[in-house]
Amino acid sequence: MARDVRLDVVDEPVAPGDYVLNHVGFAIRRIPEEEIAATLELYETLLREEGDDLMSADVRGEFEATRATKTPREETES
Amino acid sequence: MTREIDTDASRLRFRDPSEARALGASIARTFAQIGRETVTLMHVCGSHEQAIARFGLRAVLPRGVDVVMGPGCPVCVTDVPEVDEAVALARAGVRVATYGDILRVCGSAGSLADAQAEGARVDVVYGVAEAVEIATRCDDPVVFFATGFETTAVATAAALLAGTPPNLSVLSAHKYVPPAMEIVAGIPGSRVEGFLAAGHAATITGSAVFEGFVERHRLPVVVAGFEPLDLLAGLAKLLELVRDGRAEVANLYPRCVTREGNRVAQEKLWRVFHPCGGGWRGIAQIPDGNLRLRDEWKHKDARWRHPIEIASATAGAPEGLASRCRCGQIMAGLAKPTDCELFEAACTAETPVGACMVSSEGTCRIWAQYGGHPNLAVEGVL
Question: Using a CB-CB distance cutoff of 8 angstroms, which residues of chain A are in contact with residue B129?
Fold first, then answer.
């Protein structure tokens, strides 16, 4: 699953392969390299949670809606 | 000899049980040193409440350290007249696109979900970009009902600056958190002695935005992340600042927050929006607490583009359970969900009365979900 994330408001250059903090379809921060492993580990934990847990559901929803942060590309106006 | 606890968030592994125990012990020790019966701390973020309730963090806190949630749920503070405006537009035949969370929140004459059931065109979108797409694909007027705090307002601003089709306008119900903290801190009878600020809003504004606040109110502010250890570290730091009488800002979420914040985002935000006074549902009129489109953008402002007849929308609205709802006091930190007679009786997740029970970020919904049986051993934290 892939989704465009706009780079209009991120305050650092973002390159393919970078991870970004996404909020409603906009990257608001480039995640520093040294934080990536720990952050992914945390998401994995949340994704493994079962049931109707609100926090996991929010994270899962976010993942379902946008899974494109690994290769962000500028969205162009159509 | 007491071990000095390292509350530097950059060194914490997010769920390390021994760190959690150490932080819990540090909190207990600091609280004992304060030597008073209660210390009330407030956070202003639905995601913080989710983490606190989910991991049962209140159970590791000493009795007497009271952590309450303030106005941290953007859907919950969207005011009745703002929902009324969106519902009136939808009922008048304008196509309304908005975030899913706001759909079931009632105005004085029903919700957008009600309008949708009556045949009005209401689209749930993931973000403003999807509203732009809808407007691009049709010739009808489309209004994006824009709710959310400054983090979300940045997205709306960026979309407008990037260019939008002429048939799209924006009904802004965006809220700006720092002024609301001012009001809540100043409420007579408030016992709040320190604030945990939400990490994601601070990603945009930077931790510096709280520096004036700590001066004015002589209350400390700690910026914290969303993991159990982030929160415990934040609370440990906040209690230390309370103990030492130090009104200052500490950033314990450096992996996402800097002192200056995201300047690109700030610049876009303030080019499109200006802060103005307005209602936060159930709490108060908050000076500078609402974000409205600047005059230069009035051609994109739904309030300027469309006549909105709220009077007709609210005429004859029945006086329901809503008048007994205590959302306002709950969001001001003056009452708990369990203080409300409707909580889990007339008001449940399936049939919510107040906005706090509608949104997954609302205090009541979170308490209803996690109940009163936090068990850290089960969660694997302790």
Answer: 4, 6, 25, 75
